[in-house]
Amino acid sequence: MKKGVNIAIGAITGAAIGVVAGILTAPKSGKETRGDLKSKATKVTDRIQDSTRKLKKKFEKVSGNSIHNTEASIEDNDASNK
Questions:
Q1: HSE toward the beta carbon, residue 73, CA cutoff 13 A
Q2: How many other CB atoms sit within 10 Å of the CB of residue 51?
Q3: Three-state SS for 28?
Q4: Among residues 14, 11, 22, 19, which one has the least CA distance to residue 50?
Q5: Nearest to 44 by CA among 20, 4, 12, 8
Q6: Using an 8 Å Cβ cutoff, are 19 and 37 in contact?
Q7: pTM for the whole thing?
Q8: What is the separation, in whole angstroms, between the first and last Cα of the chain?
Q9: I want to staple 32 with a disulfide (CB 3.0 to 4.6 A). Which of 28, 39, 40, 69 is the partner?
Q10: What's the pLDDT tens digit per position in 15-62?
């Protein structure tokens, strides 16, 4: 799980650096630059939300499997002790 978090942090950091570099080197007016910033911020927000949904689904699947396996083990243990 820690590896996935590190990858996400790296991706977000890389995206932010790319946006800043693009803004600083772009020969555009302030109005155009603000429009670009808004567009890019929206895209980054959408990607973060998508990644968060995917991680949540994975976590729910793993935790659900763990709960199911634990319940099955308890039931097996109870049946063995009778």
A1: 6
A2: 15
A3: coil
A4: 11
A5: 12
A6: yes
A7: 0.47
A8: 39
A9: 28
A10: 888 878 887 787 878 788 788 888 888 998 898 899 888 888 888 777
